[in-house]
Amino acid sequence: MEVRGVTVLVNGRHVVFLGGDRALIRSGDVIDILPPLHGG
Length: 40
Known about the structure:
By secondary structure, the chain is mostly beta strands. It has strands spanning 6-10, 13-17, 23-27, 30-34. The protein has one domain (1-40). A four-stranded antiparallel sheet has the order 1-2-3-4, with no helix packed on it. Strand 1 (6-10) and strand 2 (13-17) form a beta hairpin. The chain is globular, with a radius of gyration of 10 Å. The model has no long low-confidence stretch (mean pLDDT 67).
C-alpha cells in the first residue's frame, strides 16, 4: 500500500503531505493526522 504525497523528515518524524491540505506525521508506529493546514 502506497501513500501518495511528499514525505519530509522533520525532527526524526516522517511528515507526509497528502492531497489537498491534509498531512500526517508518522513517528515510529504512531500516525497523527493533522488538521487542514489552511485552518479549514
